[in-house]
Amino acid sequence: MDQIVEVKYDSQFNQIENLTWYPWVGKDYEDGKRRILIVGESHYIDEDIEDEGKLREQEVKVDKYHTRNCLYEVLVDKSWCNRTYPNLMEALCDRGIISEDKLVLSKIAYYNFIQRQLDYTTAPKERPNLDDYEIAWELFLKIVDILHPTDCIFVGIESSQLFESTMAKYQIQYSEIDILEKINRVYPRKMSINMNPNYSVNIVFMKHSSCYFSPGKWYEFLTKQIPEAMEWINSK
């Protein structure tokens, strides 16, 4: 993992209140033609809450490397299975050009928007609440201030909640939110924020890649909406 993960930002991440897990930052992220930050949704508990499941929950809470380990174990080591990450890679990559996920992982940054575990052992499964989203947007702005992405891809439409109120609270200028053509039962969104007069960030919201997700359609969507970012991801 050390060959493709950059750890020099960790000291700054340690200063961010409510950031439970270190973001993944690829070795080639900082010097890339575009700096692409992928924002997932959350980690979750899907085991019996008793005994082993409860112990695992506590371990994950204090494991700052959990997000990084999940990406590496699923996409590189392939030591366990998860639909979310492989589907996301398929949406990002032209497999005729990029066949190895390590190439993509070295170029991107990734973290989960909600920095607490959601309980998927309940019926219905736990979803983020408004407090979660308020904290998440504040964290997002702090991470953007450290990583300076040019393009952000949110994996999940629901994360757009409280976007406008958060930007207004912190007096950050933003573009009109474009509600785009429906894909896989959801309406993607696109906007941008101006962090300062010389720095803006493109933001797109796509469907969560865990299920009912057509990678080819989302690859076409991303290529149309953030072409320079997709060109960089798919360059060797």
CATH architecture descriptor name:
3-Layer(aba) Sandwich
Rg over C-alpha atoms, rounded to the nearest angstrom: 17 Å
Compute the number of helices. 9
Largest sheet: 8 strands, mixed
Strand content: 15-25%
Total beta strand runs: 10
Poorly predicted spans? none
Task: Give me the strand/helix succession.
Answer: HEEEHHHHEEHEHEEEEHH
What labels describe this entry?
single chain; 236 residues; alpha/beta; Uracil-DNA Glycosylase, subunit E; eight-stranded mixed β-sheet; 36% helix
Can I get a quick summary?
The chain is an alpha/beta fold and 236 residues long. The chain has helices spanning 10-13, 52-62, 66-77, 84-92, 101-105, 130-147, 163-169, 215-225, 227-233; strands at residues 24-25, 36-40, 44-45, 108-112, 118-119, 151-155, 173-174, 178-179, 189-196, 199-206.
Give a description of the structure.
With 236 residues, the protein is of the alpha/beta class. It has a single domain (16-233), classed as 3-Layer(aba) Sandwich (Uracil-DNA Glycosylase, subunit E), CATH 3.40.470.10. The chain is 36% helix and 17% strand. The protein has helices at residues 10-13, 52-62, 66-77, 84-92, 101-105, 130-147, 163-169, 215-225, 227-233, and strands spanning 24-25, 36-40, 44-45, 108-112, 118-119, 151-155, 173-174, 178-179, 189-196, 199-206. A hairpin with a 2-residue loop joins β9 (189-196) and β10.
List the helices and strands and how they pair.
Blueprint (H helix, E strand, L loop, with lengths): L9 H4 L10 E2 L10 E5 L3 E2 L6 H11 L3 H12 L6 H9 L8 H5 L2 E5 L5 E2 L10 H18 L3 E5 L7 H7 L3 E2 L3 E2 L9 E8 L2 E8 L8 H11 L1 H7 L3
Parallel strand pairs: 2-4, 2-6, 3-5, 6-10
Antiparallel strand pairs: 1-4, 7-9, 8-9, 9-10
Helix pairs in contact: 4-8, 8-9
